[in-house]
TrEMBL record:
CDD domains: PBP2_NrtA_CpmA_like. Keywords: Cell inner membrane, Cell membrane, Membrane, Signal, Transport. InterPro entries: ABC_SsuA_sub-bd, NrtA/CpmA_ABC-bd_dom. Transmembrane segments: none annotated. It is found in: Cell inner membrane; Periplasm. This is Aliphatic sulfonate ABC transporter substrate-binding protein. The keyword Cell membrane applies.
Amino acid sequence: MKKSLLFTMFIAFVLLLAACGGSNDGASSDGSIPEEITIGYFPNINHVAGMVAEEKDLYAQNFPDGTTVNYQYFPDGSSFMTALAAGEIEGGLVGPGPAMNHYTSGSEINVVAGGSTGGTVIMTRADSGIETPEDLAGKTFISPRVGCTHDVQFETQMNEEYNLTSDRTGGEMKHVTGEPATYHSMFVSGKVDAATVPEPWASVIEEEGSGEVLIDTPEVAYGETLPAAVFVTSQNLIDNNPELVQKIVDGHKQATDFIEQNPEESKIIASEKIEEITGQGLSASVIDRAWERINFTYEVDSKVLQEFADSSFELEFLKDKPDLSNLVDASFIESKVADASASN
């Protein structure tokens, strides 16, 4: 109960921050580097690059001396995208679902790098009696948000392989939403039967014994190819201050390289940061299990994003058939990492 209360307080706090604003948009007309820059990310294991960059101060290494780099933490993609549109953050890591949904709704944003792939697990309550996906008919499943990345993965698979749909479109499965950190307690209380779960919360549920894996990451729709997190910034920032965007992406690339070269230290950073933000500590075994389901990469496949967006449209999350041909701008990840000493 204390952990749930802490997470609820965290959500209220970050939403209050988003409402208050206070960051510049970094898009100075002369292309100069602003004195303060704010990067956003979620307390999810798929966003470890943000945690490593913060812990190792990697963004600041690419900026002139005296530049302050702030970090803002988000409970969901909607609040992240709202903050980006308001100029409260210069960019950061978010799920591809919110990025694509806002882009197709007219938001002038770009995906400038990948963050990670994998990490979604479809799980069932331990005593639910569900043995196969077909058994989900008439059951209640939970996802972080309607139409979020994990929801689309789940509903795509259920629709295409098992002819099951949610009650949103008159189907057989009841859909509710909630924060992934609460899924363990939701299973224990019997309030939900199944969940589409991002790591590390899938591994938490496994360790606690409240749920079982029904479909693991490699078999989930888009499980190992879809970016679980992408790095997004505004088109305005790209147009008016491409040098700033390049330096931010350089820091993100350095963080991703650090994760690959120092996995054990990166796990410690992730564990401590998630506990700091959410109030929920994670065991080493949970982190290890979650790590096996995730690939950290700054590369991003625009073709997979388009296929995923098409699935969102077919599931009626999007009103119009999407065209993501200009969503991804890979020019920044194709550039070499800037020499930090030359920027200071």
